[in-house]
Task: inverse folding
């Protein structure tokens, strides 16, 4: 009887350990953004002549992604507004001024995901909130999953994505020069993340970061 009970307890313990291991294995992998290979490029119409181009870099951030479970994906990104490059120093200073991004008052922007849905074999939509210039607006990113693999030069495992979305600058209080620069802004984002062992949690109190 004692041997039978002991055997039963041992089997139960092994089952619990296996369940715990499977639960850990099922957790989506965390990736830290590689700032060198992660950039945001945006386009805005200038008097119908051309589309002005700007570039921004990340300050910090991470994402979680499991290619077998897109619904578990999460992301938390802080954007360095001061990194703006419009291709010409005077134009860059103007866009950083209070007429547009107001970088002195709002030096960062932040995007926090709320959900992810898969739309194709390697595509999905990442829903989230963007804090920019003191305003919070819902933003949806059309995401393409490129690949996960080893970077032979960095000796690290990486995950790569491309994304794009559009927003209206007027929604974020950028009302100046309406007759010169259009409201709609197209964003294209290229992302590389380095695999990390850290556990991350989304903190939705973004007001302190901006």
Result:
């Amino acid at each position: 009887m004692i041997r039978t009970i002991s055997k039963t307890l041992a089997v139960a313990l092994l089952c619990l350990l296996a369940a715990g291991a499977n639960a850990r294995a099922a957790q989506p992998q965390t990736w830290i953004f590689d700032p060198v290979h992660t950039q945001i490029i945006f386009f805005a119409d200038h008097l119908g002549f051309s589309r002005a181009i700007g570039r921004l870099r990340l300050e910090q951030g991470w994402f979680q992604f499991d290619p077998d479970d897109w619904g578990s994906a999460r992301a938390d990104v802080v954007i360095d507004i001061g990194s703006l490059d419009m291709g010409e120093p005077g134009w860059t200073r103007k866009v950083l001024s209070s007429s547009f991004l107001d970088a002195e008052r709002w030096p960062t922007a932040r995007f926090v995901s709320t959900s992810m849905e898969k739309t194709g074999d390697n595509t999905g939509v990442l829903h989230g909130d963007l804090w920019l210039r003191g305003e919070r607006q819902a933003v949806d990113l059309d995401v393409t999953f490129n690949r996960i693999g080893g970077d032979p030069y960095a000796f690290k495992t990486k995950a790569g994505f491309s994304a794009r979305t559009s927003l209206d600058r007027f929604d974020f209080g950028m009302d100046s020069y309406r007759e010169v620069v259009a409201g709609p802004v197209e964003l294209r984002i290229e992302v590389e993340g380095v695999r990390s062992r850290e556990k991350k949690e989304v903190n939705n109190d973004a007001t302190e970061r901006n």
User: Anything to note?
Assistant: The chain is about 15% helix and 50% strand. The mean pLDDT is 87. The longest strand covers residues 135-151. Strands lie at 29-33, 39-46, 50-65, 74-85, 108-118, 123-132, 135-151, 156-168, 181-196.
